[in-house]
Design brief:
Elements lengths: L3 H13 L2 H8 L3 H15 L4 E4 L2 E4 L1 H28 L5 E6 L1 H18 L4 E6 L4 H7 L5 E6 L29 E15 L10 E2 L7 E4 L2 H13 L5 E5 L3 H9 L5 E4 L11 E7 L3 E8 L1 H4 L2 H15 L1
Length: 314
């Protein structure tokens, strides 16, 4: 196998005309140059140099190899410089995918901090709900996926999750092949029209909403809503479903139903005609940043995860 170091020595011998001159140029000994040239000839299986008096002359094979060596070594140097820039966060990219309420709350501050600290690193963002975002990560379509997970609620008490306690144990996200960076726990809240009979309540039990018309969110949120209601003893009548949180608030504000949604959604929406009321039992979803073990060691990815964690604390 031809090695880059051997090509550098061959090129030096070609330009200087001797082993000793090449050794001086490369900063090594003449025997070291001779040894590397022997190794290169063994790799190629043909003579590359012919001694003529005090000078070394290239054979036809040697000339061909030197001709290609320049391009190979130039490409290798460029690759080394690019890798060094990426490792030093002077270049590189991070592709991120996030669910909408994360995109409007956690992501902007983290992106601004990343751009300020490492302006040479390019970060892109697309939106997708889990589990699609997790699939994109495993398929190589992104380096970081923001995702959320609800606790299991069907027929058990784990629906009641104390504040600050992750709904899912750290390091567990359906598979051991992902690196999980917990960011925060997001409380679920009730949303009712301003004129609703429970609009002034300090908190609402899920059973008090049994006969209501419901407005549900994304498929994952919708499934969790059904499980919460069934755990409370009833099946919700879902008349409207939308992935767009402003639309949920708009429908509630128009008096078309009630909803339970993540508190994080309030950060970017100003509800009109709707009242926010805590619900019981208290339920939190866990919000995490996911990546793959190899990607977690990439400096730009590690830096972006740190900025996301910092944004979550704010």
């Amino acid at each position: 196998m031809i090695e880059a170091r051997h090509l550098r020595v061959l090129r030096a011998v070609s330009t200087t005309g001797s082993f000793s001159a090449a050794a001086r140029e490369l900063g090594c000994t003449q025997p070291a140059v001779s040894q590397q040239m022997k190794a290169l000839e063994q790799s190629t299986g043909t003579p590359l140099l012919i001694r003529t008096g005090r000078e070394m002359r290239l054979t036809q094979a040697g000339e061909a190899l030197v001709r290609h060596a320049s391009g190979i070594l130039a490409g290798l140097t460029a690759a080394e410089e690019e890798v060094a820039a990426i490792a030093g966060l002077r270049a590189g990219r991070v592709r991120m995918v996030s669910f909408p309420s994360g995109s409007s709350t956690l992501v902007p501050g983290a992106l601004a901090a990343m751009r300020s600290a490492h302006p040479g690193t390019r970060v892109s963002l697309v939106e997708a709900e889990p589990p699609r975002s997790v699939e994109m990560l495993r398929d190589g379509d992104c380096e970081i996926a923001l995702a959320f997970r609800y606790p299991e609620v069907r027929g058990s008490d784990p629906a009641v999750v104390p504040v600050g306690v992750p709904a899912v144990p750290e390091g567990v996200w359906g598979s051991d092949d992902l690196v999980v960076r917990p960011l925060l726990t997001d409380r679920l809240i009730g949303v009712v029209p301003e004129g609703h009979r429970l609009a002034g309540a300090e908190r609402i039990g899920m059973t008090e909403l049994a006969g209501e018309s419901w407005i549900a969110g994304c498929p994952r949120c919708r499934r969790h809503l059904v499980e919460m209601c069934e755990n409370a003893g009833f099946t919700p009548r879902i008349d409207f479903a939308t992935d767009d949180y402003p639309s949920v608030f708009g429908l509630v504000g128009a008096g078309l139903g009630v909803a339970v949604m993540p508190e994080l959604a309030l950060e970017s929406v100003r509800p009109k005609g709707a009242r926010i009321v805590p619900v019981e039992p208290v339920v939190h979803r866990e919000i995490v940043a996911l990546t793959l073990p190899d990607l977690a060691r990439v400096p730009a990815v590690a830096a972006m995860l740190d900025h996301l964690a910092a944004a979550a604390t704010r």
